[in-house]
Structure formats: structure tokens, C-alpha cells
Amino acid sequence: MAFGKFLIRRLLQGVFVIWGVVTITFALRALSPGDPVNLIAGQVPDQSTRDQIRQDLGLDQPMYVQYFDYLGNLLTGNLGYSYNQRRAVNDIIAQHFAATVELAVAATVVAIVIAIPLGVVSATRRDQPADYAATLGSLVGISTPNFWLGIMLILIVAMQVGVFPTSGRGIAFHEAMYNLFRYGYVADLLSWLSYITLPAITLGTYFTALITRLTRSGMIDELGKPYVTATEAKGLPRTLVRYKHVLRNTLIPIITVLGLQLGTLMGGAVITEEVFNWPGLGQMFITSLRNGDWPVVQGIVLFIAVAFVLINILVDALYARLNPQVTDR
Fold this sequence. Notes:
By secondary structure, the protein is mainly alpha-helical. The protein has a single domain, classed as MetI-like (MetI-like fold). 80% of the residues lie in helices and 0% in strands. The protein has 13 helices and no strands. The protein is globular, with a radius of gyration of 24 Å. It is a multi-pass membrane protein. Keywords: Cell membrane, Membrane, Transmembrane, Transmembrane helix, Transport.
């Protein structure tokens, strides 16, 4: 019963957050300069045509009427119609969503593969050169701007060394996996890996540093607990104790942060996608913002907000199942 109340409370909070995002983006649209009719009509001088376009879009209505009409459309799943691309925003998001998810998940995998071993080494070799190197690397990773790192990777790794492509996506992950299992084409999967490696490293660098520091602090706390001394006193190998018991207990807060940061990575992929010309929601967001295509901008912001809220609710629910004391907060 307590878990049900906890889940309902989180859902209501999520609805309130999404409503706030919708209201703020709509207000920014209303306050932004420019006329959407100019984007649609172009150089058409006929005022009657322009007035008809304005009437068809509902732009001749008072702002509060437009706001409630927009809310009504959202409740039916209609995110609007792109002024620039002349198609539904739902279709645009569906087309670019997979690329953003691929990049966010790949960045998370990069962070996990690098950060957890570094954190373990740093904690088990405390105040030794390995610990100092891992701590310094974490500090550099947190302090490095993603756009600068991406440009450096393109200039040095892609252009000078010539190992990876400089931009683009090549092939979608699901297409590469389909060709692998259906026809045995390994080349498509390798092509996908070559295109996503540099963007994933760029996006996952900050996340890697964060997880490294979290793993280190969690391992140090666990290593100081009595059960570690007791298991080692029984004759269990130190490596087994550290990786089977200590690391497993440390992973609980790390998994929570991973779930929360996945939504952050989806929203933070905007700059990385623009640098690497990755055809995801971030690049489409920048392009639409430049063109003044506000229905697409609003749709992408709302979609990312909903994804972030749902991921947070899912993580909270899983954590509440693992630790029932959370439901009392």
C-alpha cells in the first residue's frame, strides 16, 4: 500500500513537471521574435494568403486560446505540425529518436566499462600513484567541455590518425543488427561502431568521471565495514571479497545514478550531435531553433522531458522496491 502511494505521488509530481515544461516552452515561443507565417509563406506578398495561413494555424487567436488548444492537442498525442518540413512533429521525433537513444546508451556503456574498473583500482590502491592518476583523470573529465573534446577528437583522431569517421551515422544500429543476424554481415556493425565511437566518448566523458568518483567513494565506504574484515579473516581471497561482495554492494547507488543520468545524457546530447553531425533529436533541435520552427522545438523539449521524468519514476520505483524505507520519505 505504501509503495502504491509512493508511486502515485511520483506520477503526480511528474505530471506537474511536464506541465511546467509545456508552459515555459509555450511562453518562450510567444515571446520569441519572428512570425511563423513568414517561414511558411516565404516571399508571398499576397496579404490575403498570409491571413489565411495565420487563420489556419490558429495564430489569429488570443494567446491563452492558443495555449489551451495546444494543451488539448497534447492530450490527444498531437505534437503539432512543422512549419519548415511540412510534416507532423510526431513523425520527425520518431525518425530521429533512435539515433539519440543509440548515442546515449553507447555513452553509458563507455562510462561503465571505463569508470567502474578505475574506481575499484582507485579505492583499493588508496593514496598510491594509481589512485592519484584516477582522481586526476576524473577531475579532467568533469572539467572538460564536451564540444571542445569532440572537436579535438575530430582533429586528432579522425583527421590526423584517420581511424574513425569525422561525422555522420553511417547505418542505424537496428539495421546493422538485422543484417548481422539475417545475412551474417559483420561489416555493417563495424561501420556503426566506427561512426559512434567518437561521439560516445565525447558524451560519456563527464559521465565516466562521475561514475569513477562515485565507485571510489562507495568502495572505500564498503571496505571499512566489519563484514569485509570478517570474510578476509575466514580465508577468502581478497580479490574475491572485493569484486563479489564489496563491489556488488557498491553498485546499488551506481545503478540509481546510471538510470538518472541516462535521461540527462539524452538531453545533453545536443552539443555532441551538432559537433559530429549525428542525426538525432539534438541536431534537429538546433536546426529547428535556427529556423524558428517552434512546433518542432516544443515537441523535442517535451519529448525529452517526458523521457527524463519516466526514467526518474522508474528508477525511484526500483529503488523503493529494493529499499522500502524510501516510500516513507
